[in-house]
Design goal:
alpha+beta, 6 helices, 228 residues
Length: 228
């Protein structure tokens, strides 16, 4: 019995070390299959890029007010965006209106956020590429090479994901053309379980901010009359 327990204690760390690299890569592939499609959908839709900029601005304003990070999960659509985190609907609406006003005044940095889908895609892409490039450099798929490649991939993602993600946000997934953007309303959704409701302090945790594009009519010029 004693030898069996010792064997388990010795095998458990080795098993974990074997599972961790595989788990990291499987998670990376799963993320890469889902998020790039969402990111490209935003990149090719100007309405979603505008709402993505407003979404980031709203989250930035809320985090400045709360002094803490909101959970990830924000998502831009053609007619608005979703954000998560315990708050009152009027607080979210005020933050969205403030964020939009500040974007219109030229505070372009509000359109960027150091966390979110773009950052996740950037980190996972760097992680997967670094992992396989390292294995190719070692020319080995043995356990030590897998473990070292995993460590290098994680370090590379932590170092490079944010600069790459901010670059992609600035050039691909946000638009600062928000002068005609208007906030319509905010819908709130309460937590679905009693435990989640207690954790949220009784506040809604999911919000849908609806927007619309209001075209500004050009001022009418002086009337012109045809001379006869």
């Amino acid at each position: 019995m004693f030898l069996f327990v010792v064997a388990l204690l010795l095998l458990l760390p080795l098993t974990l070390f074997a599972i961790v690299p595989l788990g990291v890569i499987l998670t990376s592939f799963k993320t890469l299959l889902a998020l790039p499609g969402q990111m490209l959908a935003v990149a090719f839709d100007k309405r979603r890029r505008r709402n993505h900029a407003l979404e980031n601005a709203t989250v930035n304003v809320l985090e400045q007010q709360y002094g803490r990070r909101l959970p990830p999960g924000a998502f831009a659509e053609a007619d608005g965006f979703h954000i998560h985190g315990p708050a009152q609907p009027n607080v979210v609406l005020a933050a969205a209106e403030e964020g939009l006003a500040r974007l219109k005044r030229g505070e372009t940095q509000l359109a960027l956020h150091p966390r979110g889908g773009t950052m996740i895609v950037s980190g996972e892409l760097i992680s997967v590429l670094t992992f396989f490039v390292t294995l190719l450099a070692f020319r080995s798929f043995a356990f030590p090479a897998l473990l070292l490649a995993t460590v290098i991939a994680i370090l590379a993602a932590r170092t490079l994901a944010q600069p790459l993600g901010l670059f992609l946000q600035r050039t691909l997934t946000t638009s600062l053309d928000v002068q005609t953007l208007h906030i319509d309303r905010v819908d709130a959704r309460m937590p679905e379980t009693p435990f989640a409701l207690v954790l949220s302090g009784g506040y809604p945790t999911q919000f849908r901010v609806w927007t619309q594009n209001v075209e500004i009519a050009e001022p009418a010029g002086p009337k012109r009359y045809k001379a006869y």
